[in-house]
Every structure is written in C-alpha cells, then in structure tokens.
C-alpha cells in the first residue's frame, strides 16, 4: 500500500482522463437507481393512511436534504485539503461541488414546501429544519458569489476555502440554535413530530433514491471539474495534447 | 501555505505587544474621526426608531418585538462599520506593512478587532437600554438586553473581520459582505434576542447568556487566525 501515491491523482493532467472514464459509470448507476427508486416509490410503496399520496414526495425530498448537508461537508473537506496541501485539484473539486449542493438545498426546500401545503396547510412554516436549510442555501450562495467576485482563481480558491471551513464550523451551531429558538416559540407551529414507523418498502425506496442522488452528484461534479480543469489550464501542454482539443 | 505560517508563528513572545500596538493605533485613528463614529451610532438609533413607525406604537407588541429589533439593528450597524476594519489600511498600503511586521499577524488582527468592537459594538450595547425604554421593556429585561449585547457584539466583530478580510478590494464588496456574514450571525441573533424573551417568560436568561459566552470564547480562539489567513490571501 505504501507504494500507492495518492498525490499522483492530485495532478489535473492525470485526473482529467480518470474522471472522464468514471463519469459514465456513475451516471449509469444514478439513472438505474433513480428508475428503480421511482418505481418503488410511485408504484409499490403503500399509500400512507395519514398523509395520503402526498407523502410520496419524500422519495425526492429526503435524499435531497441529506445530500445538501453532506455535500457541504465534502466541500469543506476539499477546502481544508486545498489550504493544507495547497493542491489545485482540491480547490477545483470544492468549486465544482458548490452548485450541486445549492441545487440539492433548493430542491429540498421546494419539495418541502410543496409537501407542506396539503399536509400542514401552509407553504412555509418557521420549522427548525426548514429555517436551517434556508440558511444553508445562503451559505452555498455566499461561497458561489465570493468565487464570482474574485478574478484571480488562486485567490478565489483560498478565499472560498476559508469561507467554507468557517461555514462548516457554523452549520451545527446554526442548526441547534434554530431548533432551540423554534421550541421556545412553540405556539401554533406545526411539527412532523415522531414519525410513524415507516414501511420497509418506503425505506428501501428512499435509500435507493438517496444513492441515486449521491451518484448523480458525483457524476455531475466530475463533469464540472473537467470543464474547470480545461478552462484554467487552457495554456498548458497537457491540455493542448488532448485528442479532443487537437482535432477541433 | 501562508495560512499554516500564520498558525505556527515562532515568535510567541510578541503576541501581547502586537495586540497592544494594533489596539492603540486603531483606537487613536478612530478617535481622530469622532464624527464618523457618531454617524454610525445615529444609524443604529434611526433604524430602531423606524420600526414602531412601520408597525404599531402599542406597548405590549413593542415589548415583544423590542429585543429582536434592537438586535437586528445591532447586526446592521456592525455590518455597516466592518469595511472600516481593513479597507482603509488596504487602500493606502498600510495593511501590507502591518503584515510584514515582526509581530504575529493574528495578534495584530485581534488588536484591530478589539479596537473595532470598542468603537462600534460597545457604544451600541451601552445605548441599547435607553432605546429599550422606548420599546417598553421592563428594567430586568433592559439589564439582560445590555448583558447579551455586551457578550454578543464582540462575536459580531470577530466573525465580521473574516468576511471583511475575504472581500478586501472586491468590486461588490458591501453587499457581498452582507451575504457572507449575515447567515453566520444567525446563532448570535437567536441567542441574543432569545435572552430577553426567556427572561420575560420566567425561564431566566442564564442559558442564553452562557451560550453567548461560549460562542464568544470559540470566536476569540478561532476568528483571529481565520481573519489573518484571509488577510494574507487578499494581499497575495
């Protein structure tokens, strides 16, 4: 194992073709799993006797909410590596993950409010989870906006890395502060409360959809990171030597 | 790599002199432009005055909204004064000289943050009980409000310094700073405004004030290093 040099893949020239070979596998896995998950979720899973058919939105909502938080942690981890090892590719990975994370957060918020209308009778409630998800969306947008405001990519890499790390420390604090604020102001607010025990088919459908969301995110961020590599290294020898660049 | 250097500076004996030097310098500069400080404080007073005009002068409602309004205004006042922390020194090149000095940069940054709090956060916290009277907050509530602001406004300066350093010299500086920093202020806002609420509800403000104090300790330990790293990134 000692002979395996992980930093070999930290070079864009080495990683570019590897990423290109991995994308079809992750994309195919995402498509197959999403099809199976949708079939279980929409066809096989039983109707919930309390919420009716509206509950079926959880097959998109829950995976998106999980991914929204997980992607932020992965982005922060790549940012820590970018600052610690000063590797260009780590910062590019962090950059390529931010839009996917923001998309997942937005999907979680949108599906949540669409589900809230028939179930709670309102599109928006200041529920702890909804509020902290909204703040998470602001954190993603902050990272993306900071990236766009800085012209020098190397400065943008490191500035976004610092911001992502500060945000990652803050995410749990924000979550618990919002949760506590919500319990203090209980009033007429709505709460999911203790969820009834979930049928096994529902859980299976949700987990399969979660893996589909996971593989989709990997495939898309790899595609994005390949585009970022080409754009940033457009003057370098390895990009000019690529067959698809030469032929055009 | 500069970030790692800022964390592991060899000359630890120069920390306190560094803090003292930056604090004295920034305080002297701030006190030479007293009018600017007065304008920032007036901004706070005016924002607080607008809320009853926009909603209702009814006393029970004002007492409910009051702590929240005073806190949101404190957040905005802090946000408005943040560019002053590094931008002037950055524009005339002083910041580069400061970064080259033999003192550890996190210590200098901490001194600057301390001076920023003394000239913006502290006056806001001291003025709050007076404005709280306009919102019909009872005397105990005023004491809790002032203590919460005394514990919370330094966190605003510490976190804000990171954002101010990250946005140094950028075109969209001001509004970008708001987008970066306001979400991070959320826990301070919740615990700070919640302190008065829970005191009024008979729960006591100890839990909120303890959490604010814990947040302050974490911010004091971490934020100067993060802000110093951000300053180095901006100067590259």
Number of helical elements of chain A: 8
Strand-residue proportion of chain B: under 5%
Percent helix of chain A: over 70%
Q: Termini of chain B, distance in Å? A: 12 Å
* Biggest sheet features of chain A: none
Can you describe what's shown?
The complex is a heterodimer of chains A (248) and B (236). Chain A is 77% helix and 0% strand. Chain A is an all-alpha fold. Chain A has one domain. In chain A, helix 1 (12-44) packs antiparallel against helix 6. The longest helix of chain A is centred in the first third of the chain and has 33 residues, at 12-44. The two termini of chain A are 41 Å apart. By secondary structure, chain B is mostly helical. Chain B has helices at 2-7, 15-32, 34-54, 59-81, 83-91, 94-100, 105-134, 139-166, 173-200, 206-235. In chain B, helix 2 packs across helix 7. Chain B is globular and about 55 Å long. Mean pLDDT of chain B is 89; it is low at 1-7. The chains are: A mainly alpha (248), B mainly alpha (236). At the A-B interface, helix 4 and helix 5 of A face helix 8, helix 9 and helix 10 of B.
Provide key terms for this protein:
heterodimer, A: 248 residues, mainly alpha, B: 236 residues, 85% helix, disordered N terminus
Give a nutshell description of this structure.
Helices cover 77% and strands 0% of the residues of chain A.
Question: What is the strand and helix layout of this fold?
Answer:
The complex is a heterodimer of chains A (248) and B (236).
Chain A: H1 12-44, H2 58-85, H3 88-120, H4 128-149, H5 153-184, H6 200-232, H7 237-240, H8 243-247
Helix pairs in contact in A: 1-6, 2-3, 2-5, 2-6, 3-4, 3-5, 3-6, 4-5
Chain B: H1 2-7, H2 15-32, H3 34-54, H4 59-81, H5 83-91, H6 94-100, H7 105-134, H8 139-166, H9 173-200, H10 206-235
Helix pairs in contact in B: 2-7, 3-4, 3-7, 4-7, 4-8, 4-9, 7-8, 7-10, 8-9, 8-10, 9-10
């Amino acid at each position: 194992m000692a002979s395996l040099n992980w930093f070999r893949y930290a070079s864009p020239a080495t990683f570019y073709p590897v990423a290109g070979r991995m994308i079809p596998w992750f994309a195919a896995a995402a498509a197959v799993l999403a099809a199976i998950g949708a079939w279980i979720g929409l066809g096989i899973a039983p109707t919930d006797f309390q919420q009716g058919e509206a509950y079926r939105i959880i097959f998109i909502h829950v995976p998106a909410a999980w991914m929204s938080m997980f992607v932020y942690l992965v982005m922060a981890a790549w940012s820590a590596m970018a600052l610690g090892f000063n590797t260009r590719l780590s910062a590019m990975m962090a950059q390529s993950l931010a839009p996917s994370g923001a998309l997942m957060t937005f999907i979680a918020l949108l599906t949540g409010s669409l589900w809230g209308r028939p179930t709670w009778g309102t599109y928006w409630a200041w529920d702890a989870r909804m509020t902290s998800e909204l703040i998470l969306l602001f954190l993603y947008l902050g990272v993306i906006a900071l990236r766009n405001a800085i012209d020098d990519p190397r400065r943008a890499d490191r500035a976004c890395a610092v911001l992502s790390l500060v945000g990652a420390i803050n995410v749990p604090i924000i979550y618990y502060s919002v949760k506590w604020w919500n319990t203090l102001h209980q009033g007429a607010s709505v709460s999911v409360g203790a969820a009834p025990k979930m049928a096994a088919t529902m859980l299976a459908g949700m987990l399969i959809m979660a893996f589909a969301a996971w593989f989709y995110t990997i495939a898309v961020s790899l595609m994005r990171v390949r585009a970022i590599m080409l754009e940033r290294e457009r003057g370098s020898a390895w990009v000019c030597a690529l067959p698809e660049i030469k032929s055009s | 790599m500069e970030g790692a250097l800022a964390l592991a500076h060899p000359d630890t004996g120069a920390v306190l002199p560094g803090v003292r030097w930056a604090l004295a310098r920034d305080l002297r500069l701030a006190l030479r432009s007293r009018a600017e400080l007065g304008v920032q404080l007036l901004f706070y007073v005016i924002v607080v005055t607008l809320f009853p005009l926009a909603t209702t002068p009814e006393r029970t409602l004002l007492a409910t909204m009051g702590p929240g309004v005073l806190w949101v205004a404190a957040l905005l006042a802090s946000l408005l004064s943040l560019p002053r922390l590094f931008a002037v020194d950055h524009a005339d090149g002083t910041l580069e000289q400061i970064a080259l000095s033999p003192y550890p940069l996190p210590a200098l940054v901490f001194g600057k943050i301390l001076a920023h709090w003394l000239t913006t956060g502290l006056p806001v916290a001291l003025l709050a009980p007076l404005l709280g009277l306009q919102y019909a907050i009872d005397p105990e509530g005023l004491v809790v409000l002032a203590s919460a602001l005394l514990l919370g406004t330094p966190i605003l300066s510490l976190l804000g310094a990171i954002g101010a350093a990250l946005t140094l010299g950028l075109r969209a500086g001001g509004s970008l700073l708001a987008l970066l920093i306001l979400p991070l202020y959320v826990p301070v806002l919740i615990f700070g405004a919640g302190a008065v609420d829970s005191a009024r509800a008979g729960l006591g403000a100890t839990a909120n004030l303890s959490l604010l104090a814990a947040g302050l300790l974490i911010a004091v330990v971490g934020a100067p290093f993060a802000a110093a790293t951000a300053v180095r990134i901006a100067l590259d």
